[in-house]
Amino acid sequence: MKFFVNCLLAVILLASASAKAQQPAGPSLNPPAEQGEDSVLVTIILKHQQDKNLPEIRRVLEAQGFWDVFPPQDTRVVSWTLAVGLGHIVTLQVPTGSVRRLNLALENGAWGAFNTEVYLTYDYQNVWETYIHQREEAKEDRNR
């Protein structure tokens, strides 16, 4: 699965003409990407390495400058939750030209403290709500 995700991210990176080999520039509270700008949603799971306690994880993150590079400056945090026993679940809106910057932030900042999983994501809520609504209408029609 990680191979597939890595290949998918590589394709996105290669498809972007604006991809640049830059070091992450630090967190940002930037607004969402402009409508015309190509971006993707990426969900990252940062699993706590269970051979380390919280102070050890914090030391690794600080030593590697994780909070200085993650999330990358030109990304937008869509959601950030903590699942007890699992770790952080972060969904970012990432301009396609910044996928490499995101990858570098994880490799340079998170490894050693977290096991990382990265998934291309899309918002399914409207699709689900429409389906449930149509399903209820169909159920009412069958009962008439």
What does it look like?
This protein is α+β, with helices and mostly antiparallel strands. It has a single domain (2-24, 37-142), classed as 2-Layer Sandwich (Alpha-Beta Plaits). Helix content is 40%, strand content 24%. It contains 5 helices and 4 strands, in the order H-E-H-H-E-E-H-E-H. The protein has helices spanning 2-15, 54-63, 66-69, 99-110, 125-142; strands at residues 39-48, 76-83, 87-95, 114-121. A 4-stranded antiparallel beta sheet has the order 2-3-1-4. The longest helix is centred in the last third of the chain and has 18 residues, at 125-142. The chain starts with a helix and ends with a helix.
Summarize this, please?
This protein is an alpha+beta fold.
Average pLDDT number: 80
**Morphology call:** elongated
Tell me the series of helices and strands, N- to C-terminal.
HEHHEEHEH
Q: Say what the CATH topology is.
A: Alpha-Beta Plaits
**Strand order of the main beta sheet, please?**
2-3-1-4
Distance between the termini: 47 Å
Broad structural category: alpha+beta
CATH class descriptor: Alpha Beta
Parts with pLDDT < 50 across at least 5 consecutive residues: 3-36
**Number of DSSP helical runs:** 5
Using only C-alpha atoms, the radius of gyration works out to: 18 Å
Percent of residues in helical segments?
Answer: 40-55%
SS elements, strand count: 4
Give the biggest sheet. Answer: 4 strands, antiparallel
